[in-house]
Amino acid sequence: xxxxxxxxxxxxxxxxxxxxxxxxxxxxxxxxxxxxxxxxxxxxxxxxxxxxxxxxxxxxxxxxxxxxxxxxxxxxxxxxxxxxxxxxxxxxxxxxxxxxxxxxxxxxxxxx
Length: 112
Hints:
- The chain is α+β, with helices and mostly antiparallel strands.
- It has a single domain, classed as 2-Layer Sandwich (Dna Ligase, domain 1).
- The protein contains 2 helices and 5 strands.
- The protein has helices at residues 14-28, 71-77, and strands at residues 8-11, 30-35, 45-48, 60-62, 89-93.
- It has a 5-stranded mixed β-sheet, covered by helices on one side.
- The longest helix has 15 residues, at 14-28.
- The mean pLDDT is 81.
- It comes from Streptomyces sp. SID7499.
C-alpha cells in the first residue's frame, strides 16, 4: 500500500529546465512540466519519448524524436537564460494513470 511520489525539481532558467528534463527523461521516459500557476492541468505539458503513451492531466504532449531536442519544451515554458518572466515551472517524472486530489478548506474569520 502507499503512493508514488515523482522525482522532480523547480526550474527558473532554460539551463535548469534542460538539465531537469534531460535527467528525468533518462530515468523514466516521460516527464510533466507544470507551470507555477497551472489549474487542473491547464498549462501542463507532458514530454515523452513513448509514442503510445496515453496522457491525462496535461494541456498537450510533446514527443521529441531526440531527447536532446528540447526547443519546443523551452518555448512552451517561457523561461529565459537568466529568469522566469512567466513564473517558475516544475519538472516531474510523469506517472501515467495517477489521479490528483484537490482539497479546499474554508476558514471563516470568526473560527466557526
